User: What shape does this take?
Amino acid sequence: MANVEVSLKEIMTRVEGSLAAAVGDYSSGMALGSLGGGRDFDVHVAVAGNTDVIRAKLHTMELLGLQEQIDDILITLGNQYHLITLGKGRGKTNLFLYLVLDKHKANLAMARHQLRRVEEEMEV
Assistant: This one.
């Protein structure tokens, strides 16, 4: 089992095209840890904003009576992919992994696979 810091380092090194990664709590909107980003991309602002995306999707699913779990949420921009994977299992109920990828360098299928694997191994 890996802690948050180790998990984020693993994502950033194993997933080609990674620009930023974070673990967030969608009940509070706070980041538990982050790597990457920079002056032009505030990962903590992105985590807070993506909290609203997750809450909206969960609320919509509830209104529709869907008895499903969200595996991931993908937002595609002109030059980036933003991938959100919700935590599964004990202690990760309100947590999510957030990954920003360079669209021209990343393999989306591999990124999704690696993100899910890291989420499964992460210990909070």
Remarks:
- The first strand starts at residue 18 and ends at 25.
- The radius of gyration is 14 Å.
- Strands lie at 18-25, 30-36, 72-76, 80-86, 95-102.
- The chain is about 40% helix and 30% strand.
